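Reviewer comment 2.1 asked that we show a complete input and output for one of the modelled complexes. We chose the adenosine-5'-triphosphate case, as it is the one discussed in the main text.
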Amino acid sequence: MNVPLRQYYALLSSYLRPQIARVAALALLLFGGIGLQLVNPQIMRGFIDSARSDGPPEYLYRLALLFMGLAVLQQVVAIGTTYFGENVGWTATNFLRADLAEHCLGLDMRFHNTHTPGEMIERLDGDVTALSNFFSQFVIQVFGSAMLMLGVLVLLFREDWRVGLALTVFAVLAMAVLLRLRNIAVPHWTASREAHANLFGFLEERLSGTEDIRSAGAKPYVLLRFFQLMRDVMQKQIRAGLMVNIMVNSGEMVFAVGTAAAFAVGAYVFEAGAVSIGTVYLIFNYTMMLIWPMQRITQQLQNLQLAAAGIVRIQGLLREQPTIADGDGPDLPPGPLTVEFRHVSFSYDSDEPVLRDLDFHLEAGKVLGLLGRTGSGKTTITRLLFRLYEPQEGGIEVGGVPLGQTRLADLRRHVGMVTQNVQLFQASVRDNLTFFDPSIPDERLLAVIEELGLGSWFGSLPQGLDTELESAGGGLSTGEAQLVAFTRIFLQNPGLVILDEASSRLDPATEHLIERAVDRLMQGRTGIVIAHRLGTVQRADEIMILEEGRILEHGERHALVADPGSRFSGLLRTGLEEMLV
Ligand SMILES: Nc1ncnc2c1ncn2[C@@H]1O[C@H](COP(=O)(O)OP(=O)(O)OP(=O)(O)O)[C@@H](O)[C@H]1O
Ligand SMILES: [Mg+2]
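Response of the prediction step:
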């Protein structure tokens, strides 16, 4: 997976700059830690040489104390490094998560229809989490490790140029080997993950279809496929395991070669009388110290490779642009709004049209009752009015403004929609009514509730407005959830109200409440009611019957009732359920 360097840099700079102070603290701690590591062997050397030459014991005590003090300091620095590292990493990824979430919320419904919730979670959390290390560690670790190696080599050169040279050659060769080795395991590892995913996908599908498999006598086939998939997993897993092993062992080999080289060079310069035994210890110790940063650098590069796949997917997601954008037309007028459909045709995915040549006008303040079989396109009309989708042909105007020219926020403030399945949040009833807007006082809420005739219903909730709703409105029936939605809309005070009645049956008490609330809600507003109940239909001024996306009949309700030949009067005779269910 190749990501241009520019993109890495862009990500780093946009998410690290806002927390530059913390990043600086992290860098300082890391480099401090490196410095401390470099000092340690120097003290040991002094200690060994002084002990061998019968130096004064006070000097030895002082060195020992210093050594211990530095060891403690090193631990403190290590804790600080972890703290700031996690902090920087989480802050950066959280901002990235938030940016992605905001970006996705702004994308079209079309986008969301084709991306499953599981996939979105994986994008917004899985891929981003894999970047945490990249933000908090990558640059600093790679840079810090390189600095540590450089520092060690410089100090070794200072001791003896032959030692410095030998270990520099070793370091260069070892880095080359480790960097070559780093890639060998990754593709095998990916292949093994894929084989696992296949196996689980197969299992999940077959387990959920157990009944059909048995009745169709497909057991032998299923088992055969199961064995094939398991064999695939085994082969890939063995190969991946071997590769990882080869990589780790090769690393160890490099490590052993380094140790041997340090011994050899140390022995040579000691025999030649160039250095003390303490210095030999120092050389040995520094060589060990060369190994860690090498391993850390290769480890970091490996992590980066895993993160790169995530970066590619995140960039792809950020490139997605909504096609429905704010227009620059006038704001919608206050008060009831007219609705105009001009030869509107629409399909979700270009093949099968859902609405065909829809043409009608609804005067401000009138209520249109929309009827039609399931799948005839009623809900789709409301989505177009809310500008969740745009029609392929024709135009829609609300309040005299073409929808394409409206600002989305303005449009959605002026249009209130109660959907078939009201979405409630896991929060108090109050928060569900106000959409978490604390500036709306309880008195206003209660007044609105009273006006909608819902006072006693809200009063019957266990803790009134403080009643906590479970997620997805658990605890409330569909009808009751719609009552909450009515109240929401009444607070919003839009000029056009769209009500997509729940098609499930309601108990008579709730039905009565809904009818009263709808009456009140429609006063002084334009309304479009997708009705499933005769009671609601009778509140409409006009009736429109849809069939397969076409207008089958449209007219004044009274006129249609009076005309015995109309579909509507036919419906009234046979009962609404006849058509609507
Ligand atoms: N998001 C979508 N993507 C693709 N097709 C869709 C989508 N939503 C609805 N459809 C299809 O569009 C057609 C009209 O659906 P719509 O929801 O508007 O019907 P409806 O009249 O509201 O039905 P119901 O009475 O069951 O609510 C149906 O054939 C449906 O399968
Ligand atoms: Mg519907």
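Residues 378-379, 420, 500 surround magnesium ion (ligand 2) (CB under 6 Å). We note this here for comparison with the apo prediction described in Section 3.2.
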